[in-house]
Design goal:
Blueprint lengths: L12 E5 H7 L1 H9 L5 E6 L34 H7 L4 E6 L3 H17 L3 E6 L3 H4 L3 H11 L9 E4 L1 H29 L1
Parallel strand pairs: 1-2, 2-4, 3-4
Antiparallel strand pairs: 3-5
C-alpha cells in the first residue's frame, strides 16, 4: 500500500467467514502474518458453512451435527487465535458480537495496531440462527452462553508488548484531548 499510495494512509481490513479464513484461505493469511503485513483479519465465525447449506468447517465444535454434516464433526475446533498469535499477530481477540461497544473497541484497537505495528486477528462469534434452528433472541442468548468464562468464546485478548505500548500511548493522548476539551468548555461558560 505504501508503494501505491505513498502519501496516503490506508488501512486494510479483511472480512471473511470461518470457511474462507480457516478452511480455504489460511495459507495466504498465514504467509502474510509471517511477513508482518500491516492488516487486520476479522473472522465472522458461525462454526459452519452456512452459505452453502451447513457443511462442517474447521471452526465447528467437535460433535456438532449439521444438515450437511449428519455424522457430526470428529475433531476439535481449530484454535486459530492461538495460531494467529504464534504466527506473529500483535493483537488477537476471541469474542462474540453480543456487546457492540466491546466489538467497536477491539476493532479500533486491531486497526490501529495493524496500521502502526503489524498484523492483527479478531475471531467474532456470529451464530447462523437459521442453520442452528434458533430465532433472533435465542441467537443472542446462544452468544451470551458461549461467552461465559469457561466457554469457547470467553473474551480473550492477546496484546504484544509493542502493541501494549502503542495502545497505552493512544489512551494517554485521548485522556489529554478530553481534559483539554473539558478545560476549554469550562473557560467558555465562565
Amino acid at each position: 500500500m505504501s508503494v501505491r499510495f505513498p502519501d496516503r494512509h490506508k488501512d486494510v481490513v479483511v472480512l471473511a467467514g470461518d470457511g474462507a479464513t480457516v478452511d480455504i484461505g489460511l495459507d495466504m493469511t498465514l504467509q502474510a502474518w509471517f511477513r508482518q503485513e500491516k492488516f487486520t483479519t476479522i473472522c465472522f465465525d458461525n462454526e459452519l458453512y452456512a452459505n452453502t447449506g451447513g457443511q462442517e468447517s474447521g471452526l465447528m465444535q467437535k460433535g456438532f451435527v449439521a444438515k450437511m454434516a449428519p455424522v457430526g464433526k470428529t475433531f476439535e475446533k481449530v484454535r486459530l487465535p492461538e495460531i494467529a498469535r504464534e504466527s506473529g499477530c500483535h493483537y488477537v481477540v476471541n469474542c462474540t458480537v453480543s456487546k457492540p461497544n466491546l466489538v467497536e473497541k477491539v476493532i479500533k484497537n486491531a486497526i490501529y495496531v495493524a496500521r502502526e505495528i503489524g498484523p492483527t486477528y479478531l475471531q467474532l462469534y456470529t451464530p447462523c440462527i437459521l442453520e442452528i434452528g434458533k430465532n433472533s433472541m435465542e441467537g443472542l442468548q446462544e452468544m451470551r452462553d458461549s461467552e461465559k468464562p469457561t466457554e469457547r468464546f470467553a473474551f480473550k485478548e492477546y496484546v504484544s508488548e509493542p502493541a501494549k505500548e502503542l495502545l497505552a500511548e493512544m489512551a494517554a493522548k485521548e485522556k489529554e484531548r478530553k481534559a483539554a476539551a473539558k478545560k476549554q468548555l469550562a473557560g467558555q461558560s465562565a
